[in-house]
Amino acid sequence: MSTPIGTDRAPSPAGHYAQAVRAGDVVYVSGQVPRTPDGGYTPDDVGAETRLTLGNLAAIAEAAGGGLGDVVKVTAYLARPEYLGAFNTAYAGCFGEHRPARTTVVAGLREVKVEVDAVLHLPVPPADGSRPPGGHRCRLPDEHEP
Questions:
Q1: C-alpha separations of 50 from 3, 22, 125 in Å
Q2: CB atoms within 10 A of CB 117
Q3: Residue 125 pLDDT exceeds 80
Q4: For residue 21, how many other CB atoms are within 10 A of its CB?
Q5: How far apart are CA 39 and CA 68, in angstroms?
Q6: What is the pTM of this model?
Q7: Rounded to 10 degrees, what is the CA torsion of 136, 140, 145, 146?
Q8: Among candidates 110, 115, 98, which has minimal Cα distance to 53?
Q9: Which of 21-30, 108-117, 132-141 is predicted with the least confidence, judged by mean pLDDT?
Q10: What mean pLDDT, rounded, does the chain reach?
Q11: Dmax of the chain from CA atoms?
């Protein structure tokens, strides 16, 4: 049995799929791109697009009851191979010390520079509701200090 997960803090799906689906202790997050929750896209540098994309991932993880610290696997899609350095820098800034498994693919993305999907492991919390927090939150580009 699976349960769809969604939040208005990330863009709505562009097709017939859920933002994420929980199956037992595992949450599968659909591909996220650098769009604002209202679906808007303003082309930006790879770092900013990565932070916005991972901010969307973080919002969906939070809607599922977790955070970026619960991510166990990421698949990243980049429009061009030369984006890898800037992507890695922004990615590390969002995940901090947490290092999920990752595959990075250069793909024929339309319009955007970055897309990311992920798998989270979210064990059912104990009956008392205690659970360590799921890592830190990836801040959106406009939340960073100048």
A1: 27, 24, 30
A2: 16
A3: no
A4: 17
A5: 22
A6: 0.87
A7: 150
A8: 115
A9: 132-141
A10: 89
A11: 48
The first and second tokens of residue 55, run together, are 């901010």
* Tokens 């037992």 found at: 24
Q: Which residue has the tokens 């969002």?
A: 94
Sequence-distant (6+) residues with CB within 8 A of 22 are: 2, 3, 5, 28, 64, 122
Q: Supply 38's token pair.
A: 């209202």
CA distances from 11 to 33, 52, 135 (A): 9, 11, 22
Q: With H, G, I as helix, E, B as strand and everything else as coil, classify residue 109.
A: coil
Both structure tokens of 104 = 């990075």
Cα separation, 31 vs 132, whole angstroms: 26
- Residues 112 and 26: their CA atoms lie apart, in Å, by 28
Contact 71, 100 (CB under 8 A): yes
Structure token pair of residue 133 = 């927090």
